[in-house]
Design brief:
Layout: H1 3-21, E1 28-31, H2 53-59, E2 65-68, E3 71-73, E4 77-79, E5 84-87, E6 91-93, E7 102-103, E8 110-118, E9 123-126, E10 129-131, E11 150-157, E12 161-164, E13 167-169, E14 184-189, E15 196-201, E16 204-206, E17 211-216, E18 220-225, E19 228-235, E20 241-246, E21 256-260, E22 263-269, E23 283-287, E24 295-297, E25 300-304, E26 306-310, E27 316-318, E28 321-325, E29 331-333, E30 339-341, E31 344-348, E32 351-355, E33 361-363, E34 366-368, E35 372-376, E36 382-384, E37 387-389
Parallel strand pairs: 1-2, 2-5, 3-6, 4-8, 5-9, 6-10, 8-11, 9-12, 10-13, 11-14, 12-15, 13-16, 14-17, 15-18, 16-19, 17-20, 18-21, 19-22, 20-23, 21-24, 22-25, 23-26, 24-27, 25-28, 26-29, 27-30, 28-31, 29-32, 30-33, 31-34, 32-35, 33-36, 34-37
Antiparallel strand pairs: 7-8
């Protein structure tokens, strides 16, 4: 064999190995209840073997796209491979008689979730309606405790990905269980040394019982942007929060991330009618004591009992529009070293901003109509260039 022939052979072998090593192109699997539909048209006559979402998930390879045609699918899903679930308008995931299908990484408690993403990266859920109206969970040990199993719409469990352009609704328990502390639309949680990083963007979240979005524990990062989160309004049931980044364990490190450009409204506990007697109040955004480095910016927060409550250290709350906070404050800060700046706060029942912690910086905020503009309950807090209007006691004053 000549040198030229050897060179040609080497080139051919290398080319063949390249072709073999090249990853397979992602496929689109079509789910249609009538057994017909294509990747381009759910009305196409082309047969599809997938009439349930679970069957397509089982057949899919990593990175495939599962297109879900219009219809109501009574299923609970577990996803443990990198996939995209893409709902066409009118695709509704609405299981009935939900059962426990996973557990909390922290407490080990049983959870009933509509979609659990477990131990995997790059799972996208988009354009899908997630509806818990038919969950039929009716077991709550005491009226004010957590239900067994607890109810969630989407749960990223040591997992990462994106939830966008979806509607998550009706995460509520049955009759007589309104006070039970369960029912959350989206949960992101890390544990046992794992990590979760999830983008939650442009979703409609409403009719939940406990929280709209919860991101908990060390190792969790949540990018929460442009969602509309609507509470139940005045309710004597469980006290609601719109968006929470925290830790489920007292004193432990909590989640971090950003909360930007969301609209959060109608979070009001009817049992909380005065600051002197209120045992628990509803919050638009709550940053727990273990969470730091969180940015809460450019949100619109209205008709809550505290617009933003910050218990952690070293967070930033800026450029938010906060209005109609009942009983309590536009912004309440119990942590230390936080920066509260450039917020517009209108109509608060207690104060515009209450800096209860230490060494916080409160600057360039605009407060219109509150009994007290600025309350200072800590040590070393600084207040700079705040504008206080239509307020009998501008402050800062001691509570």
């Amino acid at each position: 064999m000549t040198r030229g022939s050897v060179a040609v052979l080497i080139v051919l072998v290398v080319a063949l190995l390249t072709i073999v090593a090249r990853p397979a192109t992602a496929e689109t699997l079509v789910v249609a209840q009538d057994g017909h539909g294509s990747a381009k048209d759910c009305n196409a006559s082309k047969p599809t073997p997938y009439t349930t979402i679970a069957s397509a998930v089982a057949a899919a390879r990593p990175h495939d796209v599962i297109k879900i045609c219009p219809g109501t699918y009574s299923e609970q899903l577990t996803i443990a491979k990198s996939l995209t679930l893409r709902g066409e308008s009118g695709a509704v995931l609405k299981p009935s008689a939900m059962v426990a299908n996973t557990t909390s990484l922290i407490t080990g408690n049983a959870l009933a979730t509509i979609i659990v993403v477990d131990g995997v990266r790059n799972v996208t859920i988009e354009g899908l309606t997630i509806d818990g109206a038919d969950n039929e969970i009716s077991n709550c040990p005491l009226p004010t405790q957590v239900p067994v199993p607890d109810l969630f719409g989407i749960f990223y469990r040591n997992a990462s990905g994106t939830v966008r352009d979806s509607a998550i609704r009706n995460m509520r328990l049955g009759p007589g269980l309104a006070a039970c502390r369960g029912g959350t639309a989206i949960l992101v949680q890390s544990g046992t040394g794992g990590r979760s990083e999830v983008a939650i963007e442009d979703n409609s979240i409403h009719a939940f019982q406990r929280n709209g979005i919860t991101a908990n524990e060390a190792g969790t990062t949540a990018h929460i942007r442009r969602n509309v989160v609507t509470g139940l309004g005045p309710t004597t049931g469980a006290v609601q929060n719109g968006i929470q980044l925290a830790s489920g364990v007292t004193g432990a490190v909590g989640a971090t991330g950003v909360v930007e450009e969301n609209v959060v409204t109608q979070l009001i506990s009817a049992n909380c009618v005065s600051a002197a007697t209120c045992a628990a109040n509803a919050n638009g955004v709550i940053i727990g004591s273990g969470s730091s480095g969180v940015r809460v910016a450019r949100n619109t927060l209205g008709s809550t009992q505290t617009g933003v409550a910050v218990f952690g250290n070293g967070n930033r709350v800026q450029d938010n529009v906060i209005f109609n906070t009942l009983v309590f404050d536009g912004i309440f800060v119990e942590g230390a070293g936080n920066e509260i700046r450039d917020n517009q706060i209108t109509r608060s029942d207690e104060s515009g901003i209450f800096a209860f912690g230490d060494d916080n910086r409160v600057a360039n905020n605009r407060i219109n109509e509150a009994p007290v503009g600025l309350l200072d309950g800590g040590v070393g807090n600084t207040f700079l260039k705040n504008t206080i209007l239509n307020t009998p006691v501008p402050g800062p004053v001691a509570p």
